[in-house]
Amino acid sequence: MKQIMTFLMMSFFTFGCSQKAPEVSKTQFSKEALQQNLEDENGKPITIQEILNQHKGKVLVIDFWAGWCRDCLKALPKAEELERNNPNIDFVFFSLERSKEKFDSSLVRFNMKEKENYWFSVGWENDFNKYIDLNWIPRYMVIDQKSEIAKYYAISPEDPEIQATIDRLLK
Question: What region holds the Thioredoxin domain (predicted)?
């Protein structure tokens, strides 16, 4: 019993229970990351590159979330506020749900149907998430008008650097 408790405690502290900021803030996506497939609400595959192309010329905020993520749900009202306060920029939501059924259910449950949503049907471990060092959600990224990364890492929609980055890009 003592060994089991020790293992559980070590696992808790080893794997951590909070985000760890990436050591490098990337400003561009790799070719492999851009080719990563997601699925839209209808189950149609789409690549990151295609999503970025749809928003080229606009400032884009990517919000990584899931309905099972307590931190994501706590952040949702502030994310909606950020969206309301910035009507001239685009927002997309990348879901880390574990199944299409959970993805569909979360969109309804959390009033996300009116937003642009995609989910990683291949799961968390994929070329895009590895490239951006995604180790926890929620996570926010700001993409500039040329589809380059302007704000690489934010864990809250209230991070003042998100709004500062948006303001700088819109000047």
Answer: 27-171
Least confident segment among 13-27, 45-59, 115-129: 13-27
Does the pLDDT at position 11 exceed 60?
no
Tens digits of residue pLDDT in 83-104: 999 999 999 999 999 999 999 9
Read off the CATH number of the domain in which 163 is found.
3.40.30.10
Domain-embedded: residue 6:
no
Which 8-state DSSP code applies to residue 67? T
User: Within 13 Å and on the Cβ side, how many CA atoms surround 100?
Assistant: 10
Spell out the SS3 assignment of 81-116: HHHHHCCCCEEEEEECCCCHHHHHHHHHHCCCCCCE
Q: Is 16 left (phi over 0), alpha (psi -120 to 50) or beta?
A: left
